[in-house]
Each structure stands twice: as structure tokens, then as C-alpha cells.
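Task card 7
Instruction: Convert sequence to C-alpha cells.
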Amino acid sequence: MLLKGALLGAGSIVNDHMDGFNQDGRGKFIWVCDSDLNRAKEIAAKYGIEKITTDYRECINDKDLDFVDILAPNFLHKPMAIEAMEQGLAVLCEKPMALNAAESSDMAEASKKTGKRLFVKYHQRFDPVHALAKSMLLSGEFPRPVMGLATLFGNHLPSMMNPSHWRGIPSLTGGGCLFSSGSHIIDLLRFFFGDVEAISAVNRQLIANNPEKGDDNACVILEFKCGIIITFVGCWTTNAWSRSYRFWTEDKSMYIYPNDKGDNFLDIENMEGRKTILSAPDWAPKSHHTAISHFLDIMEKDIEPLYSLDECIKSMRTLELAYKASEEGKRILVD
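Output:
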């Protein structure tokens, strides 16, 4: 059966989503909605989507629909998702789940109440390198680390300094560097190591000089219940685009990093040297595609998702507490 959907939002991520649905072949979009009508028309023409609108309610009232794919800014995730589920539709939602943990909980409650599926697409959990790292950590093939470092560097300074650009406006996105980029990092760290016990953080706007925007740099220390301590450093004010993870035991290190071609790597280093255990070509688009196929499996086969909505809410709560730790200037215990 061909499942019919509506794209709610047509930002840059839309191409990864459309490629994923087209490769899978079980979903077809009949609506595209965006606040920018010209953008909606552009995407509709590119992908052969019949109907366009600037009002998402027009989409979700279509009785031919089976699901919606929410790519809109974060402040719209909650109303779009809840109203879609109330109309009897399944929901695929881009990360982060919403503006905060309370909104995320409301979305989960609506899914439970309506009986309609809600899947939040943390696509990095579906990358083969990340999955292997998780397996090695869980099985003990790589002994439990005692310390870790996660970094993300990129140049979002032009959009942060642009008053008309949505990036970094807390009321629209939930926050700045930590919220938008850190949401992936923190969720993946929780995927690897489980629940967080305590958080310390310093999140600041150091360069953007825009009081309407949030943090452009962030540093968070996460103390996990399993015992590992990990520092996350995020920076939106450099032209050196990079992302990396490193975890240490007493005599080994695990590295996760991409190359300039978009491949992802898992390396293990010990006293004998450093060795690549796995590489994943084109890891980002492929992980998007795998996550989308999993969503279609959830709909078509009525299977349980690989991670629960409670997991997504915990990742949102961790982000929330990192901001609280920075604002209050103290270490926060996670309840």
C-alpha cells in the first residue's frame, strides 16, 4: 500500500527526506506546506507534488492523508504534531522534538491518547558507525570509558548576526548552538551511555552581538550514571566545519569522526597503534534514509520504534537542564 503524506515545512533538510522516501518507495507526498509560497511551489515542482499551501491545517484536513512529515521550525512541532494526530494521522518529526521537555511530553501524551504513531527522527542513531560503537560499548568489546570529549564546530555566524534569520531565536528554535546542534550530540551520547546524573554548563553568545539570538558557543559537562564524564564543546563562530567524539579507557581510545567526503569512521587506538574498525560512506544522507524507512516500517508493519518517546523526552530534558545549569552557574542534578 502506498502511504500518502504531507510535507510540513520545506527547508534545506527537505531534500534528504524526499530522497529517503523516494528510495524506499512506500510513501508518496501529495501536499507540501511552507510559509514561503514560492518555496513550496519550488519543492512541489521539483518532486512532482500536486498540492501546495501556506496553511498546515489545510493539509491535515485532507482525508486522503496517512501521515505528515514535520520539517518546520521547532516552535511549530507541538501544534502541528498534536493536530495531525487528532486528525488520525501518523507523524514523522524532525529533531529536536519541540521547544522544551514539557511540549515534548504533551506530544507523547497526544500520541497515547489518539493511538497514532509519533516518531522523532534522531537520524544519527541509524548510522552504522554509531550503531557499532553502541554495540561495542554495550557488549564490553570496548571497555567502559572513564572520560570523553565531543566537539562540533561550524560557521553559523552570518545567520546569527542576521536579525531576519530564524537561526538562534529561542522563541522559534528553543535556543542557539547548544539547542540546535547540541541536540544531536547529546541524544547520541545518551544513545551510547544512557541516563545523565548531573550537568554543568557555560553557554554564551560571544561574537554574534545580537540580543534577540541565543548562544553561539557552548560547553557542557555531562556526568552519566554509568560513570563516564563527557565534555561537549560546540562552536558556531569558526569556519572550520568538524564533528568528533573521543572516549578513553585506561589503555584504549575510541574515535568517531567524518572526513571531508562525508564518510564516517570508527577508530580504536591502543598501545599498538590506531586502526579503523568501520567506515560508513555518505553517512548523513544514508542515516536519514534508514530512519525514514524505519518510520514507514512502524506505520506499515505496526512495529515498535527502535527508541521510545520517553527517550526523546529525556534528551530534551537534558538540553533544558544544560541551559539551566549555565543560567544559574551551578551543577544541576538530573531528577
